Amino acid sequence: MHSRIQREIESLRTELSDHEYRYYVLAQPTITDEAYDAMMQRLVDLERQHPEWITPESPTQRVGGIPTKEFPTVTHKIPMLSLANTYSEEEIRNFDRRVQETLGQKKYRYVCELKFDGIAISVRYENGIMVQGATRGDGIQGDDITQNLKTIRSIPLRLRTSVRGSLEVRGEAYMKRADFQRMNEERQLAGEKPFVNPRNSAAGTLKLQDPKLVAQRPLNFVAYFLSSGEHARANHYDNLQQLKEWGFPTSTHTRLCSSVEEVVSYWKLWEAQRETLPFDIDGVVVKVDSIAQQEQLGVIAKSPRWAVAFKFASRKAETKLLNILLQVGRLGTITPVAALEPVFVGGSTVSRATLHNEDYIRELDIRPGDTVVLEKGGDVIPKVSSVVQSKRPEQSSVFQFPQTCPECGSKLFRSEGEANYYCENSDCPAQIKGRIEHFASRGAMDIEGLGEAIVDQFVNLGLIKTVADLYALPSHRQTIVELDGWGQKSADKLFNAIEKSKSRPFEHVIYALGIRHVGAGIAQLLVDNFPTIHQLIGANEEKLRHVAGVGPQIAESIVRFFADPHNRLLIDRLQHASVQMSVHNNRKPSSGVLVGKTFVLTGTLNALTREEAKQRIEALGGKVVGSVSKNTSYLVIGSDPGTKLEKAKTLGIQLLDEEKFLNIIQSAS
Ligand code: IVH
After folding, report:
1. Residue by residue, what is the 3-state secondary structure of 96-110?
2. Which pLDDT tens digit goes with each residue over 134-159?
């Protein structure tokens, strides 16, 4: 009897860790989350009935530890070394020369790896079972953070193949940029202090005394070193292969290089491509591949002579803040911008950086004339991160935020609770230009050739003042042709592009109008629910808020936009110019059994993709929109339906499961 249950427990454990491996290491899950949860629940239940059979490496024990006051100290069996840093091609060639001199005539190869910007950790296994995890500490002694590390799902609690004896695996615990950002947003919502960057966030997480909290944080692991007398292979590269077979995540970007030239190209490649990775790196690591040669090269001080960190150029630099300028956006938003003495940082020369708003300047007490620290973050947008107080000129005073618009001289407003100042003069030339540029931009009316310089030129000459004036430009043909830099051909080209914009779909027009808070996504939702401009103008805030995705702020902004007589006139003129003011669905047949029926899809369908479902519905004359409203005829429900289901239920919309839906489209076609 017992042995049957014991066997079930054992097979659940094997299967669950297999699924963890597929999900967290290979990123190729083969079962649904629900099936996984059910299996886990079964194991939890069995272990609850038989606590005597719980083992520390059971998948149920990832979040088992109780909070501690202090981490016990661990002495590393083999010291955790750090790496010497190099920053230039010259330094890396010097490193290579030293390797060559020591190894004599022998051939050697390098393994090049990414230098993950996280926290070094070491994990010990006995007979294939994880028994301890520790931080690097001072390299000799670190903190025992076993319970915290067990919560990281990509660290195997039991190796995938059976291994006798002991071994130690070292690697980096890190956080992906997107996970970090999401977590920080949640922290801010909860009133907690945000972390500065993914690295600090990983470090702070591993220091938490409660493993339950650690388990909620999105930590990842990558293994890059195996230390073991018995199991190590002859080369580092093969050790990485071995780690992979045991179930550890290893980097897919590791390369074997047979010359220093290849090493330099690898470094250059990743310097240029680092933004494409989902996590931060601060350089590459170069290691001699052969373990015998590593031993021959040895260790000096705390770093090996067989490996080196080849870091990227610093993404921080000091420079002088020449002035603080104000930029006026198309909606009148005022953004302070730092005019800087040009400085080379993170691969490019920077002379401008955003200062966000008045509060940011006040908080850091930034003053023109200051020496400031410029930093390039993960998103490459340079920002001023601090002031070097010691270099502040003697006669400097706190920056007073200007009270008038630099473009039109109007008084600036900052309402309570808002971070930004606004220029409320809608005739402000900066706003006029900004609105027209936005209208012409890609994703909006996409008017090729109508860029910033031409908009400037035309606005300054008084040829255009609103976006509707664009469609009257051909009547100024003679004037334009005679302008500097213009001729018959270039004028015709522009007029053609403007003519073409008249066929842009309605959702592009709505986006192009530049209503505050209405991006391309919201514009699509609006036209799905209000297919003509009259319906949209006629919608009050309450009606607008019925559209999923449209909150009170957006609804208010839309109503305010259309209530303005200038904007109404603008719409009239655009309509006169034959710009699209309603949804035209060319594909829509006028016959078909689903004519007049509006569908909304939610969740995942088994038999076909969303796009396929949409095409089938449209082919039968029906329409598919993004959100549920009282005009919806059917809600089609796949697995894991979203909030649309609740909404449809409250509105009494007819619901179709996948089977019913397929029946309808099959019998109709
Ligand atoms: S190897 C003796 N490989 O860089 C070998 N380290 O100062 C020691 N790091 O503390 C480390 N990515 O936190 C190695 N692919 C990589 C690495 C890496 C990041 C970190 C690690 C270490 C520091 C070196």
Report:
1. HHHHHHHHCCCCCCE
2. 999 999 999 999 999 999 999 999 99
How many residues does the structure list for the chain?
669
- The reply to whether 433 belongs to the active site is no
From the candidates 115, 311, 376, 623, give the one annotated as an active-site residue: 115
Q: Which two tokens stand for residue 59?
A: 């998948």
Distance CA 19, CA 26 (A): 10
> Distance from the CA of 72 to the center of ligand 1, in angstroms?
24
Distance, in Å, from the CA atom of 143 to the CA atom of 132, rounded to the nearest integer, reads 10
Q: How far apart are CA 423 and CA 21, in angstroms?
A: 56
Q: How confident is the model at residue 499 (pLDDT cuts 50, 70, 90)?
A: very high
| φ and ψ at residue 188, rounded to 5 degrees | -65, -40
Q: Where are the alpha helices (DSSP H) in 21-113?
A: 33-49, 89-103
Distance 138 CA to ligand 1 centre (A): 14
| Residue 622, burial from CB neighbour count under 10 angstroms (0-12, 13-18, 19+) | buried
Residue 506 burial (C-beta neighbours within 10 Å; 0-12, 13-18, 19+) = buried
Give the global pTM: 0.57
pLDDT at 323 over 90: yes
CA distance linking residue 431 with residue 333, whole number of Å? 9
Residues with CB under 6 A from ligand 1: 81-83, 113, 115-116, 120, 136, 172, 224-225, 285, 304, 307, 309
Instruction: Compute, in degrees rounded to 10, the torsion defined by CA atoms 268, 272, 275, 276.
Output: -90
CA distances from 439 to 8, 217, 507, 560, 622 (A): 64, 42, 12, 19, 31
More confident: 189 or 310: 310
Q: Who contacts 74 (Cβ-Cβ below 8 Å, separation ≥6)?
A: 132, 134, 137, 141, 142, 143, 144
* CA–CA distances in Å: residue 243 to residues 116, 155, 247, 295, 503: 17, 11, 7, 21, 58
User: What separation in Å is there between the alpha carbon of 112 and the centre of ligand 1?
Assistant: 12
> Contact at 8 Å (CB) between 423 and 407?
yes
CB 523 within 8 A of CB 511: yes
Lookup: tokens for 438: 């936005």
Cα–Cα distances in angstroms (integers) from residue 547 to residues 82, 483, 551, 580, 644, in the given order: 56, 48, 8, 22, 10
The residue type of 127 is N
Helix (H, G, I), strand (E, B) or coil at 521: helix
Which value, to the nearest 10 degrees, does the dihedral of the CA atoms of residues 352, 357, 358, 364 take? -70
β-partners of residue 123 are: 133, 169
Evaluated on CA atoms 208, 212, 214, 220, the torsion sign reads positive
Question: Are 516 and 552 within 8 A, CB to CB?
Answer: no
Q: What is the pLDDT of residue 1?
A: 52
Q: Pick from 76, 114, 116 the residue to mutate for probing ligand 1's pocket: most ligand atoms within 8 Å of its CB.
A: 116
Q: How far is the CA of 201 from the centre of ligand 1 (A)?
A: 18
Ligand 1 atom with the shortest distance to the CA of 304:
2
Single out the residue of 336, 419, 429, 426 nearest to residue 384, CA to CA.
336
Of 644, 588, 591, 579, the closest CA to residue 618 belongs to: 588
- Beta carbons of 171 and 222 less than 8 angstroms apart: yes
- Number of Cβ within a 10 Å radius of residue 152: 23
Atom of ligand 1 nearest to the CA of 83: 7
